[in-house]
Amino acid sequence: FVRAFRRNQSTNVVIDDPGATDLTVEVNIDAVAQAASRLGYEVTVGTQRDLLLELGVADRRRGLVEAEHEAARTGRTMDQLRARSERLDLEALLDPSGLGGFTVFRIGPRTASSAALP
Q: Which pLDDT tens digit goes with each residue over 80-105?
């Protein structure tokens, strides 16, 4: 079952204007993870927060905080607001009681360290 959202509204238009519509599907993560593992792939399951932090989003957040403070210090109000807006969007993605709590999984080639695991 595929659900589509555009501008915070549900829509039946799924493939028009790629990138402007968010698609949501229900996935049996356990079944996909087991199949991928059997095929020799490494599967990592966790929260969106954990994955983004592992990918280095904390550095991006720190940079936005610094940019926001620097813009405030130098009186560049619009730059300050842009940095704050981006920081708040990022923090919403990390919120463990919101989007950051979503279950995500990553499938990729086995690494040398994971190849030895059963």
A: 999 999 999 999 999 999 989 988 88
